[in-house]
Hints:
With 502 residues, the chain is mainly β. It is built from 4 helices and 34 strands. Residues 1-17 have low confidence and may be disordered.
Amino acid sequence: MIRREVLQGLGALALWPGMARAGEGAPFSEAALLDLAREVAARPYAPRPKVPQQWRDLTYDQYRAIRYDTSRAIWAGSDTTLEFDLFPPGLYFPHSVEVNTVEDGIARRVPFDMSLYEKHEIVPTDLPVDDRLGYSGIRLRAELEKPGKFQEYAVFQGASYFRVIARGLVYGLSARGLAVNTAAQEGEEFPEFTRFWVERPAPGVRAHKVHALMESPSVTGLYHFTLHPGGTSTDVDVRATLWPRVDLGNAGIAPLTSMFYFDAKMRDRFNDFRPAVHDSDGLTVHNGNGEMLWRPLNNPRTLQVSSFVDDGPQGFGLAQRSRDYTDFHDLEAQYHNRPGVWITPGEDWGRGAVTLVEIPSDKEIYDNIVAYWRPREPLAAGSEHSLSYRMTWTGEIADTVPVARVLETRVGRGFPNDLRQVVTVDFAPHPALPEDLDALVIYVNSNRLETSQGLVQRNPVTGGPRLAFSFDPGEVRVAEMRAQLFHEGRPVTEVWLYRWTA
């Protein structure tokens, strides 16, 4: 994500095209932003300058010791429903972003102000400061739990990444504006939000609007975010327009990034006091055929890319279905309180594939899961593409198909000296399930493995059915699996999909 730049220092920052002078205002409208984005897209890509070296040389502890004084948050103490503050540049964020406030139809750039921060004594005293320095991102605050108490609920920082939470949750997975060439041999490109415009809401209005310009060598984009904080979920409506500079054959729409380290499917590989460690445990898809798919995540030994081909997807997302403390026994990370995200297309996205990328990881600090929609046809160079979608950040993604959902998947040997692998899939109780589980019809299949017919029993803890089957892997290294339960010719559970790797 860090690219070689030619221009450096504050003097170079002053040359960044379009940077407004501090205090100057300009009329604001979405039409004006569209004209600006088209102008940027028509120009050759110009890498942004880096902030001065002293900022980039900050240590992790020094950077964290520069803390924003939240009593001086933008719009603090006013009659608006939104406050926001700003992250300093430096360390992992060598490029600054321009932040503008929008009030009464006028946009004004927020000048860099070091007095907004409380600094620990370990912070160097010779950091070069200028009002042109810029920031590395923004943090939004709203009254999530009670009036007058503003709590952070969204962060936009680093490339085109952003994170959102709802009441009672902690930050987990992230979203991005766009993914470009993810898992491609030539290397991934990370488009960056370079300028933000934050609108001041009218008194009593709880919808918050953030606009962002995105730039990279391959594409320019304009994004409009409308965030609805509060309650058990935070909805984010996204509208975007893209102008590719090159043919984008591997473009990821509505990309989500998460971490999956291990769970009960791979206990033999991880010596850890916790039974599981992950921000998300599965990919869920409501496809154009009306099926509800559940694909448990994995931490494979080699890079794995899975494509779920579709036409007109109705939604997809990354979920954290493990919601109890005892699923993790981690007092600090609180993995059981990490959000899931559901993506609902705003229009027919046509043909393409929900794509899942699973990257080998040896530490829980690395995000190794990426999920996105990949259009079947490349986004042509010189064209203009507009799209929209809603993101729902929540602890429990709502069921969109009336069938029993998958709760947990376990994989391992049945007995110490048995080479066969046993798979158990626990489903939640659901009205669609018959009282007599013997009336269920089992479907289990694999493209490369011969599996047993399967057995269904009621799990006395969950109250739902448990499907169990086994297979002998032999020399097979990778295989796809599919399982589902039926009653009277109708599916009564999600489609369970899994890629087994040796």
